[in-house]
């Protein structure tokens, strides 16, 4: 007869398990563990239960996840006690306390088990006892897990860090914005698991979907599809126009508020690429997948999949083609092995939750290995050609003449994919990772890769050859609210004098390349002697540009010239991002847990007009109880200083980041932050 123990209760030993599994930051009274690593439970036995004898116990543990748990799907596993646990499958071992009243059981999960919420049951000769529930996550600390990351500093950054930097602007004026990922905020993990359950693949076949959650490739692709709302009830609705019925994309300071709103009332209005990417990063990190947010400047959107961005203009300089190059675009990289492709493609994988083009009928993108992108291996799944074009497409500029003929006037093999950026490990510095995506521009390797990518177009080779050359020169200190001048410079490198039509214009533009309202325009007919230059200046007055620029604060400058003798057409473009006033942040007093501390905030109004509906908002993980705190301060006159004092009470000890946002009717989404160390 096998032993049967009378169990009074089960202690899931949450504090000890959370510490050893790096899940203590979830801060909840429940068991959250990472797969492929043992966790302990303590069974309290009724007195006189006797001593456990290996091989004679009737213990059989069962773990189950999903609505239809099956052994064949890997969503159910049963296992008995062994001398010791093994690190390749579900297993258990036990140690009897000398007092005879407790039994310490070590349970090891399979490093290939599906992630999710599990139930744990003990069966003794048909007598079943529920021992509780636990969440199982991917494990970057486990060498047998597909997301294993060897460097502890990188695990700290890409799994555990709750705040980071998102880069925007232009490649020549890169602007960092701090973001609270908040993956350990209360309820966020449950919401992330709910996102997986809201996935249409789960609705269609829950058994197959839950079984596939063992694979970070599959989970990453689901995240990419579910962060946008285009094909389903996903998290964020995109909006690249005027916002009248939701939150401006630039107003968000972190992911937690967005995810909670989605859980309460469905798709959240509104987001743009950095919001989609940052929320996607939060979900990946919450589930245990190492993830980083990446910004690609001069990012191509290749609509016809030919790896060439064809910019077609009419003779007035208006663009009439669908291909585009965004000033910047933001996506995520996730770390994992690729057994479906071979070990050479292990490592960072790009995926993109921003809805741009469909993949397998759904608005999602990736994951595609960076190594495949760099080497032009475009047959590798998923969506490698589209991502390759984003960072390495060639550009051809054409003008459509009045007779309908299209004439190439310039091109570039080097302009797309500039200053690809992510936050550095362990600091707030920017790290340039362009070399991870492609070989140096213009190098033999880069051109060979492009040929391997089956690009056969021959482009005009630009250089210091005879011709007309256009450049745009900028002013210093282009701060929103100020007036400044910019210049178009036309140089004649021909051996003969030239007479040219010369135009220079400025218009508001969104970061995704969508053109807005025209701001200024000047034109002239100029005589340019051989070897000399002529300039057109454009004065950009705040009274003209202030009311039409978007919260991205971008202005596109375009210079166009036509040789009156040959009718040859030349064009130069440059997008500028205006600097914004800085927020000064000062903490009054020392930050201590559960004690009020004051943030004193100031900002100089650089505009020559009054700001109305002004407010400061602060938010920080472990600082503001998971919710933003806003103080409205009314109006602030021109050149006056906006001031606010906001009290908050930190809820947890340790390092954090306090994000500050200033809003008004005319200056929107001004952002800053400081590091805060909360003491006992």
Description:
By secondary structure, this protein is an alpha+beta fold. The protein folds into four domains: 131 residues, Immunoglobulins (Immunoglobulin-like), CATH 2.60.40; 298 residues, Alpha-Beta Complex (Coagulation Factor XIII, Chain A, domain 2), CATH 3.90.260.10; 110 residues, Immunoglobulin-like, CATH 2.60.40.10; 96 residues, Immunoglobulins (Immunoglobulin-like), CATH 2.60.40. 16% of the residues lie in helices and 40% in strands. It has 13 helices and 36 strands. About 2% of the residues have low confidence.
Features:
Immunoglobulin-like, five-stranded mixed sheet, 13 helices, six-stranded antiparallel sheet, elongated, 4 domains, single chain, Coagulation Factor XIII, Chain A, domain 2, alpha+beta, 680 residues
Per-chain topology:
Blueprint: E1 7-11, H1 14-20, E2 31-34, E3 38-45, E4 59-65, E5 76-80, E6 91-96, E7 102-108, E8 116-124, E9 127-137, H2 152-160, E10 163-170, E11 173-180, H3 188-198, H4 200-204, H5 206-212, H6 216-227, E12 236-238, H7 255-265, E13 268-271, H8 273-287, E14 291-301, E15 308-313, E16 324-336, E17 347-351, E18 368-369, H9 370-375, H10 384-392, E19 394-400, E20 406-412, E21 418-423, E22 430-432, H11 434-437, H12 444-452, E23 468-473, E24 484-492, E25 498-509, E26 515-528, E27 533-540, H13 542-545, E28 554-563, E29 569-577, E30 583-588, E31 597-604, E32 611-619, E33 629-636, E34 641-648, E35 654-663, E36 670-678
Parallel strand pairs: 2-9, 12-13, 15-19
Antiparallel strand pairs: 1-3, 3-7, 4-5, 4-8, 6-7, 8-9, 10-11, 14-16, 14-21, 16-17, 17-18, 19-20, 21-22, 23-24, 24-27, 25-26, 25-28, 28-29, 30-31, 31-34, 32-33, 32-35, 35-36
């Amino acid at each position: 007869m096998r032993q049967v123990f009378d169990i009074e209760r089960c202690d899931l030993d949450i504090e000890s398990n959370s510490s050893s599994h790096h899940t203590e930051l979830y801060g909840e009274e429940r068991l959250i563990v990472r797969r492929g690593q043992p966790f302990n439970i303590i069974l309290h036995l009724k007195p006189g239960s006797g001593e456990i004898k290996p091989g004679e116990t009737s213990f059989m543990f069962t773990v189950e996840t999903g609505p239809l748990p099956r052994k064949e799907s890997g969503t159910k596993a049963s296992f008995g006690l062994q001398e010791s646990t093994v690190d390749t499958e579900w297993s258990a071992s036990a140690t009897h306390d000398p007092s005879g009243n407790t039994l310490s059981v070590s349970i090891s999960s399979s490093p290939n088990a599906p992630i999710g919420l599990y139930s744990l049951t003990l069966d003794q000769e048909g007598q079943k006892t529920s021992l509780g529930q636990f969440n199982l996550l991917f494990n970057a600390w486990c060498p047998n897990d597909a997301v294993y990351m060897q460097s502890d500093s990188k695990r700290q950054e890409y799994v555990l860090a709750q705040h980071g930097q998102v880069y925007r602007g232009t490649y020549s004026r890169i602007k960092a914005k701090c973001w609270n990922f908040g993956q350990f905020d209360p309820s966020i993990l449950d919401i992330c698991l709910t996102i997986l359950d809201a996935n249409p693949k789960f609705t269609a076949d829950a058994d197959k979907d839950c079984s596939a959650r063992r694979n970070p490739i599959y989970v990453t692709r689901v995240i990419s599809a579910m962060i946008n709302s285009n094909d389903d009830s996903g998290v964020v609705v995109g909006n690249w126009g005027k916002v009248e019925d939701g939150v401006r994309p630039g107003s968000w300071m972190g992911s937690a508020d967005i995810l909670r709103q989605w859980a309460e009332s469905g798709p959240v209005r509104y987001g743009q690429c950095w919001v989609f990417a940052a929320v996607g990063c939060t979900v990946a990190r919450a589930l245990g997948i190492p993830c980083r947010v990446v910004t690609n400047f001069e990012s191509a959107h290749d609509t016809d999949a030919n790896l060439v961005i064809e910019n077609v203009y009419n003779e007035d300089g208006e663009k009439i083609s669908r291909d585009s190059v965004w000033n910047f675009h933001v996506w995520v990289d996730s770390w994992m092995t690729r057994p479906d492709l071979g070990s050479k493609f292990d490592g960072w994988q790009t995926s993109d939750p921003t809805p741009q083009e469909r993949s397998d009928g759904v608005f999602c993108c990736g994951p595609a290995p960076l190594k495949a992108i760099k080497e032009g291996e475009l047959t590798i799944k998923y969506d490698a050609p589209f991502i390759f074009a984003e960072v390495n497409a060639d550009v051809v500029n054409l003008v459509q003449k009045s007779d309908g003929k299209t004439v190439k006037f310039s091109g570039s093999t080097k302009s797309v994919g500039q200053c690809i950026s992510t936050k550095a490990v362990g600091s707030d510095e920017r790290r340039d990772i362009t070399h991870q995506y492609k070989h140096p521009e213009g190098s033999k390797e880069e051109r060979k890769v492009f040929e391997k990518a089956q690009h056969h177009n021959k482009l005009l080779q630009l250089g210091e050859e005879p011709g007309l050359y256009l450049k745009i020169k900028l002013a210093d200190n282009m701060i929103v609210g100020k007036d400044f001048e910019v210049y178009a410079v036309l140089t004649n490198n021909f051996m003969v004098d030239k007479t040219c039509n010369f135009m220079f214009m400025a218009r508001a533009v969104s970061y995704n390349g969508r053109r807005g309202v025209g701001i200024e325009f000047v034109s002239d007919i100029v005589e340019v002697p051989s070897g000399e230059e002529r300039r057109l200046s454009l004065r950009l007055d705040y009274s003209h540009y202030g009311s039409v620029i978007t919260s991205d604060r971008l202005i596109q400058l375009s210079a166009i010239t036509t040789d009156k003798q040959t009718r040859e057409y030349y064009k130069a473009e440059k997008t500028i991002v205006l600097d914004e006033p800085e927020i000064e942040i000062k903490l009054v007093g020392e930050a201590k847990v559960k004690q009020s501390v004051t943030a004193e905030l100031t900002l100089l109004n650089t505009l020559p007009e009054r700001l109305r509906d002004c407010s400061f908002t602060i938010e920080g993980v472990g600082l503001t109880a998971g919710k933003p705190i806003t103080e409205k301060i009314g109006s602030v006159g021109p050149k006056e200083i906006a001031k606010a004092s906001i009290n908050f009470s930190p809820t947890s000890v340790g390092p954090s980041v306090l994000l500050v946002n200033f809003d008004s009717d005319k200056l929107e989404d001004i952002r800053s932050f400081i590091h805060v160390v909360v003491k006992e």
